[in-house]
Amino acid sequence: MGDLVRTGLSLEQDLLSRFDQAIGRKHYQNRSEAIRDLIRDYLVAEEVDKNVDVVGTLTLIYDHHRPNLTEKLVEAQHRAGGKVLAATHVHLDHHNCLEVIIMKGRGGDLKDLANGLLSLRGVKHGQLVITSTGKNLK
């Protein structure tokens, strides 16, 4: 960790109490740790908005009985070139599969790829989670 700097915040008592309850539920040891994580979340969101290289996971739930869906998912990942690093496929039950796709690339490109996959008929639900490559975080 670099040089630590102390700073103060002025907050309404109710807001601070609610924050303390929230960070307690997440098992933070103190407010500083929680605030550092909030700042990092903000900086990661800025990286995505600036369209720099980021990493992400796309989690999909889909019906594997939907005709040609599996082929379309695989084809889209191949077309994405080097953006798709890995994918894991799990059979949840007779009809439903879980797929987790690990990606790296510019934030806008990952969002476009995810939206294309999520919009395929037979995909029941999905969520893209984007984070930093870590290069710019301390």
Shape: elongated
Give helix and strand order, one letter per element, not per position.
HHEHEEHE
- Give the low-pLDDT segments: none
Work out the radius of gyration: 19 Å
* Tally of discrete structural domains: 2
Number of helices: 4
- Going by CATH, the architecture of the largest domain would be 2-Layer Sandwich
> What is the top-level CATH class of the largest domain?
Alpha Beta
Describe the structure concisely:
The protein is of the alpha+beta class and 138 residues long.
Please outline the helices and strands.
Layout: H1 13-25, H2 31-49, E1 53-63, H3 69-79, E2 84-91, E3 96-106, H4 107-118, E4 123-132
Antiparallel strand pairs: 1-3, 1-4, 2-3
What does this structure look like?
The structure is a single chain. The chain is of the alpha+beta class and 138 residues long. It folds into 2 domains: 13-49; 53-132, ACT-like. Chain A, domain 2 (Alpha-Beta Plaits), CATH 3.30.70.1150. It is built from 4 helices and 4 strands. It has helices spanning 13-25, 31-49, 69-79, 107-118, and strands at residues 53-63, 84-91, 96-106, 123-132. A hairpin with a 4-residue loop joins strand 2 (84-91) and strand 3 (96-106). It is elongated, with a radius of gyration of 19 Å.
Could you list some keywords that capture this structure?
2 domains; 4 helices; Alpha-Beta Plaits; about 140 residues; alpha+beta; 4-stranded antiparallel beta sheet; about 40% helix; 4 strands; elongated
